[in-house]
Sequence to fold (154 residues):
Amino acid sequence: MLFQKKTNATDMLPAVQVVSGGVYFGIIKTLSPIRIEGDFKGIIFCTNKVIIDKKATVSGDILCHEIVIGGLIDGNVVCKSKCLLHPDAMVNGVIRTAQFENGENSSVSGPVYVSKDNTSIDVDEYYELFNKKENLEKIKEEYFSLPQKLILIS
Fold:
């Protein structure tokens, strides 16, 4: 026990992972970190870190504590802490965050709002507003035009 190796938090695998090789549809609400490696269409509510891999595509909005973007997001990003775009990453939408950093050749088609006031963003409050029946039905129609199962991970 005296010489036990300490585990670095950044080395840990995310609890929720959307793997490459398929297209996934749904609504994800999680307290755990999440990594998107494939194609995802839907909405992500995460009170932790979201990682979008270089080859990944997300069509939909992401509300999270922290995000690292390597691939493409067609939607808005609301981030309580830090938003990092790796080189060649793309966001076709609005970004709202407390800290913003972007790599070479990364792009955002909409405005980027950076303010310390964004640290008061409450992802759970957004989820509660989203989860009202009338809002949920409207969003389900928009995101899920084809008949399919709705995936909710909590």
